[in-house]
Request: fold
Amino acid sequence: MTKRASDVSVSPPSPPRRRSKYTLAPLVLIAANVVLFALFFVWPAVIGLVYSFTNYTGVGVFQWVGLDNYQNLFGDSTFYDALTRTLLYTVLFVPLNFVVSLLAANLVVSKHAKGGSVARVVFFIPWLLSPIVVGVLWRWMFGENFGLVNYVIEKFGGDAVPWQSNADLSLLVVVMAAAWAWTGFTMLLFIAAIKNVPVSYYEAASLDGAGPWRQFFSITLPSIAPTSFIVILLNTINSMKEYPVFVALNNGGPGTSNNLLVQYIYETGFKRGQIGYASAASFVLMLILMAVAVVQLMVNRRVENR
Amino acid sequence: MTTTDIPRPADVGSGRSVSKKRPRKTATGGLRQAVSATTLLWIMACLYGFPVLWFVLSSFKPASDLFSYPLTLVPHNPTLSGFRAAWDSANFSQYFINTALVCVITTILTVGVSCCTGYALAKYDNRWLKAFFLCMLATTMLPGEVMLAPEFLVVRNLGLYNSFAGIILPAVLTATGCFMFRQFFLTVPDELVEAARIDGAKELSIFLRIMVPLSRPIMLTLAILSFQWRWNDYIWPLLMLNDPNKFTVQIGIQSIVGAQNINWSVLLGASVISMIPLIAIFLVFQRYVMGADINAGLKD
Reply:
């Protein structure tokens, strides 16, 4: 004990060496999470990989089938439809959510706008609703025969829009619903980032005569770039695994036209009992997410080092 | 050190956050800007608030009025019959209790475990802690949904199928929670730990007596987030639970939506009831979410 005390008071030692003396305490502290990580992340990942090479159905014996599952997957048009639909949903959802959240964040922190703190709560409340309730809510608004939106359209002399029976319009409703529901959280990330931009930048810019748009594009947007990358990354991951909003809003329909990947995995794995085949589909999704994450991190690093 | 305010994370840097206020000079177009910004803000807020308002007001309509034209925003004969029918039907009160139980237990465990891990990652330094940090990062990139089938088999092999433990335990590990605590503890000066060590405090009692009380604001923020995640969870409880007496609220609502003929009166009532707890918690603890410098723990 005395040795440690003198150690600190005499000379400031380098932090890493000093800290590495402690091994038991951090081990105890992370023990619970290490166990959980091993049980619910490593173990499923390993057996998932193994099962993806078998014809396991969840019970009984199974046979090694090599790469058959993956080959079948690439010949499976249902899988392709689910994959392209998922990518289309992601491509629509991520930019829309990005733009509306950034707009909301800018308006809320703007000194010119009155009532920002109340509006912030209004923007945030949809995030508190569960994806199921969000789906129910938008189904209620966009019902073909009973929804408010079609009622208003007909009131103004338009024809009822097939929000439920047209596959593309149906997807569009989900995109809007999800963007609406996720705005609150994304907005919080942006608000935190915008508040950290030094005020002096804006003061200098306005002295030089830069208008609000110029200030936004030349100061705000570059300054919050790291947050923007995180937002895009998180939203991409979230939209690739979207399922509950679809299930409540249109049950992946009309028909199976809006079945996304997770729903495909769920239906093949749990309704048809093809655990091996579903595991292979899971691994394709996993590879896509990993590729997205790696690309994002690489771009992020390059931007930050510039 | 004020314990009520959430300190900004270390990566912000002291020089960058000199002042939060932004006293911009009111230029010549100041008034016009103020008017247009305020108008835009409120148009947007109305667009966001209206669906919720319409939904909630609709739930007060009697079943016979739901589809009667012309549609009105405010119900003519407000009634609670939809709520009452929802509460009585299909064991909804039981679902509510189940969900509350799962949420509270998971949240307590999540906060506790994340606090420990976050502290270890922030204040200790060795090779396998760094490795574990990367492992945690991997879990954010690969969420549980992508491994539904194998994760289901693991939980079944552990004998947790159709039990609350089967939904609680896999949900306790969250990278976001650990990173939030890690960033908070990075802002706590190392000197505090050193001083306690000089006074002869043991490592774990430094953590329990000094660090845990300091991190109370983060605990509340994470507790609210965790409660929201678990309350709104759908797919995992759906897979795990087989016994209708153990269903959660979200499964209950989805079973009403999935019916051949949707009973909208009951559905609206059930949905609005399910929204109440989270909105109430949020309104009470608002500043812990709104004031928090949430960056999902990933900005580093």
Q: What stands out?
A: Chain B touches chain A through 114 residues (CB under 8 Å). The first helix of chain B runs from residue 30 to 58.
